Amino acid sequence: PSISPSYLKLSKLIWDKKKITWPHAQITWKNLFAL
Q: Which pick of 1, 7, 12, 26 has the fewest CB atoms within 10 Å?
């Protein structure tokens, strides 16, 4: 079955938010911005 682009965008948004809220992800973001 085909997945609508809007659903993909939504799931990606939620996934990104999850990654950002994870402590490990926060550390990764800090390391990225520290470079």
A: 1
